[in-house]
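Q: I'm writing up a methods section and want to include an example of the input and output format. Could you take the sequence below and give the corresponding predicted structure tokens, formatted cleanly so I can copy it straight into the document?
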Amino acid sequence: MTKRVAVIGECMLELKGEAFGAMTLGYGGDTFNTAVYLRRCGAAAGLEVAYATAVGEDGLSSGLLERWREQGIDTRLVRRLPGRMPGLYMIEVDGRGERSFHYWRDTAAAKAYFDVERTPLEAHAGGFDALYLSGITLAILPPAGRERLYALMAAMRERGAHVVFDNNYRPRLWVDRQAARVEFERAFSLATIALVTADDHQALMDLPDLDAAIAHAKALAAPEVLIKRGASSTLVRAVDGHGRWLEAPTQWVERVVDTTAAGDSFAGGYLARRLSGHDAVSAATHGNRVASRVIGYPGAIIPAEAMADLL
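A: Here is the clean output for your methods example:
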């Protein structure tokens, strides 16, 4: 049976290159990256993925939508807002190959997704089997928008849908750590699947080390919890494992080129297998395979042919 997943967040325009020199225009964002890998890994099983966000009515926004459709993403949940534009970030690369990031997103269209009585996502939520969001999704929304999203999470969980929260924590997007912690704890309480990156959790909860972060994450009440520990095995607790903590191996990578989207691609690979009926450990193992492939290539979204054997 076809499974449908709604992913909500922000996809930004990306400028990459030398400041005041040659630059290329691309696009990316944590939840969008996950949507792409989820679609790729789940296409053979009939998984459909829709992206919920807002863009403008300008040519760049139209270009984004066209490219998203080329990736197999359903754009019917996207709002187009006159007078708004997508957010923008620039990756500046110096002579040694080191990267620095600059963001322009304060007035980005995605922030205003819930600035309407009923969004496309709320109107069509009943047709989706799962909802995926991240800590960055929470960060870009104003308080009223977050409340609407929490209500949607609660309603979907109540009717038996999967609600997946990925803890991507970016301090610069929050007023302070305590404000972020309150919102993350709310999201964790509504999630049926919690994806936790250990070092992000350590920073958010102001814990002394990774061991303390892992112990804290293990106490989360979500029915299914995965704790990602970089190159170390992923810790998995799920109902089909009888509530025990099990381990999913990571993959050895000969040469790491770019760790961008490692966690995003893991989430896509994991959810594609999980929603197709695989057990949590084998799904997490597949997610780690996908992530290991992605970090061997530059950029967040690697060519589909580079991972054809994983699909």
